[in-house]
Every structure is written in structure tokens, then in C-alpha cells.
């Protein structure tokens, strides 16, 4: 069992006030009722991760990403994935120039800071693989030349959960490349009224508050966020329990899980906790930051058994059981911030 209280002497360094709050406020001038989605997008941006969004049409997934791109600055691109798309349409290709009698490289639309891959599950496996390779390596080889994508680089992919005809579901190995899988739900009644008023009212123009240089500086600050060893222990405990649930007192999950999360899940939990701590104004991560991100980090990395699916068990149900079995431990880091 993971210990529930840890005493540790640590004097955290001073931290500068973050510009994240005004950035969120600016995006919310247009986007209503998507606070969780906005927070996860910013965490991924600060932690150099990528996000997979799943939701029915009309929930402002594309509008949210466009608004965020406008506020944070940098270049933005959108690719509508279709069954007839080929890898060259995404990464680029070499074109013969008759005048100069030589080949020139035409770069594809992925060479932007924020890329929206709309309905990624509608493109064939070759196109999905081409995009996911760029996500991992952040570079593309065309001919004999290697081209690096801009820094920072964030892929925001969307998929529709209610249509399966003509789709190519992402395999588990490719899903693992995404830091988060965020489920976008319907807005509340009150939020929907505000949405209608804003969309049908006066046009809202968002301000650009940051630049790519600012974002890189923020990412470097996030890298300096202190991570106590017990935060790493907690993240590893949650992930290992998905592979060997019986060893962690979760015998009822043994028959529900075919495969648990990979070590990339532990890495993303800690990296995301750093970014979340930075957004919350702390110079160090806490176990509760890991717990807050666990659902979005783990849900797409769990492979359920047929019996679990037949019984209506979802990955979210399993992650909920994990968090109840292992609530975030208390860590005293020596100042007023105590989990």
C-alpha cells in the first residue's frame, strides 16, 4: 500500500506570477463551458504533449482550438482527415521544377505551431502513422532532407464517437502517443444560453497575448518545477496497478484488464503534473496534480477484456477505482502549500 503521509523538508524557490490566468480569461470571452478542455490543452502545450479530443459534432472543439491558437500566438493549421488523404498531403513532397531542372521540397500543412487534425480516425493507417511519427520525432524526412517542425509544436486531434462507417480506429500503440484523451461533453442549460447569445451577437475579436518565444520560456520554467520522489512513486503506483491490479488489492479488476498503461503514462503524469502546478502558481508538483490528470492520461491506454465491455465497464470506471484505492498522499514540503 502506498503511504498516505510524507514529511519532507524542502524550501521551494520563488516563482514569477504566471500569464496563464489572463490567457484563459481571453479565450473564455468566446468559448463557454469548456474549462476542463481549456486547462488540459494548456497543460499539454506547456508539457510538450499532444491531445486527442473525443466528442459529438457541434461542441466547439474546433472553435476552442482556433481561439487558443489566436490567443497564444504562433502559426495555426487545420487538416481535415478523409479516406483519400495520403501522407504527402500531410508532411509534404518533392516537386520537379522544369525551369531549374531540379526537385524542390514543398512542405505540408503540419509545419505550424498548433495543428488541428480534424477527425483523425477518418484517414487510413499510413496517414495516421505519418502524423504520429511527427508527433514523436518532431521532424519529417522528405527525400534525403530532414525538416523540423516549428517549436513549440502541438497536435490537437479530434474524433467523433458516434459514427463508425468509413473510419479507421487508432490502434493502441498510436493512441499511446497522445498525452491526454479528453472527452468533450454537452454544455449545461445555462452555458448553452450564453453560447447562443455570443454566437448570434456581436462578433468577438480575441487578442494575441503571447508569442512562440513566450511559450518556450514557459516550457523552460515548467521544466524547473520541483518533483518530489513521492510524486513519482504515486504516479508509478497508479500506472503499475493497471498492469498488476491483484498485487495492489484490486482483484476485481484482474479479469477486466487485458493490458495496462505503458511507462509513457507515468512520464506523462509527472510531466503534466509539473505543468499543472505551474498553472496553479506553485514551484513544485503535488500528488493531487497527478490525481487530477489521471483520468485523461490513462483512459486511452487501458485495453479492456470482452467481459468488461459486455458488462458496461469503461476505462473511466477503472481509473475511478484506482483513485479510490490510492488517493493522493499528503506531502509536507515545508511551506504553506500542503496537500
From TrEMBL:
Transmembrane segments: none annotated. It comes from the Bacteria. GO terms for molecular function: ATP binding; ATP hydrolysis activity. Residues 50-180 form the ATPase AAA-3 domain. InterPro entries: ATPase_AAA-3, CbbQ/NirQ/NorQ/GpvN, ChlI/MoxR_AAA_lid, P-loop_NTPase. Keywords: ATP-binding, Nucleotide-binding. Residues 255-319 form the ChlI/MoxR AAA lid domain. The keyword ATP-binding applies. The keyword Nucleotide-binding applies. Belongs to the MoxR family. This is MoxR-like ATPase. The gene is moxR.
Amino acid at each position: 500500500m502506498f503511504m498516505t503521509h510524507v514529511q519532507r523538508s524542502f524550501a521551494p524557490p520563488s516563482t514569477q506570477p504566471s500569464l496563464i490566468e489572463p490567457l484563459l480569461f481571453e479565450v473564455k470571452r468566446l468559448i463557454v463551458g469548456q474549462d476542463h478542455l481549456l486547462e488540459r490543452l494548456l497543460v499539454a502545450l506547456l508539457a510538450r504533449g499532444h491531445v486527442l479530443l473525443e466528442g459529438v459534432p457541434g461542441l466547439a472543439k474546433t472553435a476552442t482550438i482556433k481561439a487558443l491558437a489566436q490567443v497564444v500566438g504562433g502559426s495555426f493549421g487545420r487538416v481535415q482527415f478523409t479516406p483519400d488523404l495520403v501522407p504527402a498531403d500531410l508532411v509534404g513532397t518533392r516537386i520537379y521544377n522544369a525551369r531549374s531542372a531540379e526537385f524542390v521540397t514543398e512542405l505540408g500543412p503540419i509545419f505550424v505551431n498548433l495543428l488541428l487534425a480534424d477527425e483523425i480516425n477518418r484517414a487510413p493507417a499510413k496517414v495516421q502513422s505519418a502524423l504520429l511519427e511527427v508527433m514523436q520525432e518532431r521532424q519529417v524526412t522528405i527525400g534525403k532532407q530532414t525538416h523540423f517542425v516549428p517549436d513549440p509544436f502541438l497536435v490537437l486531434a479530434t474524433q467523433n464517437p458516434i459514427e463508425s462507417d468509413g473510419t479507421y480506429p487508432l490502434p493502441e500503440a498510436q493512441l499511446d502517443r497522445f498525452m491526454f484523451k479528453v472527452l468533450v461533453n454537452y454544455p449545461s442549460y445555462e452555458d448553452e444560453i450564453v453560447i447562443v447569445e455570443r454566437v448570434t451577437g456581436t462578433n468577438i475579436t480575441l487578442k494575441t497575448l503571447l508569442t512562440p518565444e513566450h511559450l518556450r520560456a514557459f516550457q523552460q520554467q515548467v521544466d524547473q518545477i520541483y518533483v518530489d520522489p513521492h510524486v513519482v512513486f504515486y504516479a508509478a503506483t497508479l500506472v503499475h496497478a493497471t498492469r498488476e491490479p491483484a498485487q495492489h488489492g484490486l482483484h476485481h479488476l484482474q479479469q477486466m484488464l487485458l493490458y495496462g498503461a505503458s511507462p509513457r503514462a507515468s512520464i506523462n503524469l509527472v510531466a503534466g503534473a509539473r505543468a499543472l502546478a505551474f498553472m496553479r502558481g506553485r514551484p513544485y508538483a503535488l500528488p493531487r496534480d497527478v490525481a487530477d490528470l489521471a483520468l485523461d492520461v490513462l483512459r486511452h491506454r487501458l485495453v479492456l477484456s470482452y467481459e468488461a465491455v459486455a458488462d458496461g465497464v469503461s476505462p473511466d470506471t477503472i481509473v475511478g477505482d484506482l483513485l479510490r484505492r490510492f488517493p493522493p498522499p499528503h506531502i509536507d514540503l515545508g511551506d504553506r502549500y500542503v496537500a
